[in-house]
Write a structure and sequence with these properties.
Length: about 475
DNA sequence: TGGGGTTAT
DNA sequence: ATAACCC
């Protein structure tokens, strides 16, 4: 149903969605059947569906691949399977497979510590993200076949809103096959599932969809991962991590408080990052319970109304943020870190490398970036607050040369970037950089204007005589200038 | 700590 | 342009 009304979240949308108790009674299986059916009212919300009241009935799947980079490396190099494997960037082991974890290697451990813990550790360099990125998008595209509403989080996680799929299956369930009514994977807290509770039913169907997603990812791409199924993004993400590698878990609403209560610190709450944690701690807030019971007024004064209200809702397991389809990337960037870069010539060389890779990527994408940015990190003792950037529009004559490999686009681009560089760094003074990054953003699709093509002057029309199956058109009003 | 990404201000 | 968040 493609309703129009967007602001009807409160009351009075009379689209009742009751199930036939008789059908459910017969469905039993090994699962207990109790109580009367609940009717749930539906209302549209940003193209997705939310409950008419305030308790959410969305079904969200969070898919989280196991040690993603390591898995991709083991597919590329099958001889590494079974060995403890770490993926190295500079002097860090950024991730590792489960064999390595058993031997004490942790994510983001230094190579020194990792080798000390585990001398047999095999290391592969993972500084070039190309294959990871490509595999990552294959996973997202596969999930988009289930439902187009897929939001990426990093390279190895995706949220999928399967509410509509679940609704469809709920209605198709009617006549025949009750054997499908069994939960797939774990149920958080081993909570009993009530098939007469339509919210439980939806989540159960969600767990089956999640299992199908993981199967498809394994069969088609050879990757394993976890999944979490719940009524919002926060809970689905938290619950996906409860059984770890290659397993899935569904959260029934009654266990929400247990799940968020299982966090031992607010820092573990997705959405509460480093800075907010610092400020919360200074207020004496350390646990989820502390945050739940803290004065909302004081919290708002301390963090601003937006952050305060959002994170306090999170502390109760409430998260109304929609699954926002990611679509194609908003930006492309390449970066390189190093011990020291202290001359303009040196910087220019590194920038040329970054730019060459970026031009390749942007060319394959097909869209044209209209903005370029240079990011630097200066050497300094304090680690956290130190990246500076300058950006500028890319001149249109340079944009046009993009993709058409013939002309030299490097030279004008490098010239632009070096201007940005000199704007940030006084090259007449000594400097010490530890990172350079180049980013293309403001991506626009190619001259989509059908201007010049006949289609530009025609508009599709259904109002004309024949229903012969041929498309009909009307002449459009068109200003001819420009 | 790496090499990426996103949105809000 | 920066600051916060995510992996």
């Amino acid at each position: 149903p493609e309703e129009e009304e967007d602001e009807d979240e409160e009351e009075e949308d009379e689209e009742e969605d009751a199930m036939d108790p008789q059908l459910l009674g017969a469905a039993g299986g090994s699962l207990r059947v109790t109580g009367p059916l609940e009717a749930v009212r539906l209302a549209p919300f940003h193209g997705q569906v939310v409950p008419a009241g305030s308790s959410s009935y969305r079904v969200i799947v969070h898919v989280d691949l196991d040690c993603f980079y390591a898995q991709v490396e083991m597919i590329s190099h099958p001889e590494l399977k079974g060995k403890p494997l770490g993926v190295q960037q500079k002097y860090l082991v950024v991730t590792c497979n489960y064999e390595a974890r058993k031997l004490g290697v942790k994510k983001l451990m230094s190579v020194r510590d990792a080798k000390e813990k585990c001398p047999q550790l095999v290391l592969v360099n993972g500084e070039d993200l190309t294959r990871y990125r490509e595999m990552s998008y294959k996973v997202t595209e596969l999930l988009e076949e289930f439902s187009p509403v897929v939001e990426r989080l990093g390279f190895d996680e995706n949220f999928v809103d399967v509410t509509q799929m679940v609704e469809k299956r709920l209605h198709q369930l009617q006549s025949d096959d009750y054997s499908v009514l069994t939960v797939s994977g774990h149920v958080y807290n081993n909570q009993s599932v009530n098939l007469n509770d339509v919210l439980h039913l939806r989540l159960l169907i969600g767990s089956q969809i999640a299992a199908e997603m993981r199967e498809a990812i394994f069969n088609q791409l050879g990757l394993t991962g976890c999944a979490g199924v719940a009524s919002n993004k926060l809970l689905s993400k938290l619950v996906s991590g409860t059984f770890k590698p290659n397993q899935q878990t569904v959260l029934m609403p009654e266990s929400s408080q247990d799940l968020i209560g299982s966090l031992d610190h607010i820092k573990q709450m997705p959405g509460i990052g480093y800075k907010t944690t610092q400020r919360l701690e200074s207020l004496g807030i350390n646990s989820v319970h502390d945050l739940q019971t803290f004065s909302p007024e004081i919290l708002e004064k301390e963090l601003g109304i937006s952050v305060a209200q959002r994170i306090q809702k999170l502390s109760f397991g409430e998260d109304n943020s929609p699954v926002t389809p990611s679509g194609p990337p908003q930006s492309f960037s390449e970066e390189d870190s190093f011990k020291k870069c202290s001359s303009e010539v040196e910087a220019k060389k590194k920038i040329e490398e970054l730019l060459a890779s970026l031009l390749n990527r942007v060319c394959k994408d097909g869209r044209k970036p209209h903005t370029i940015r240079l990011i630097i990190r200066r050497f300094s003792s304090d680690r956290h607050v130190n990246r500076e950037s300058r950006q500028c529009p890319i001149p249109s004559h340079v944009i046009q040369k993009l993709g058409t490999g013939n002309y030299d686009v490097m030279t004008p681009m490098v010239d632009i970037i070096m201007k940005l560089f000199r704007n940030m760094v006084n090259v007449k003074m000594p400097f010490h950089l530890t990172l350079l990054s180049v980013c293309f953003s403001n991506l626009k699709s190619l001259p989509t204007s059908k201007k010049g093509s006949i289609e530009f002057y025609l508009t599709p029309s259904s109002s004309t005589t024949s229903h012969s199956g041929k498309r009909t058109y009307k002449l459009k009003d068109t200003h001819m200038e420009e």
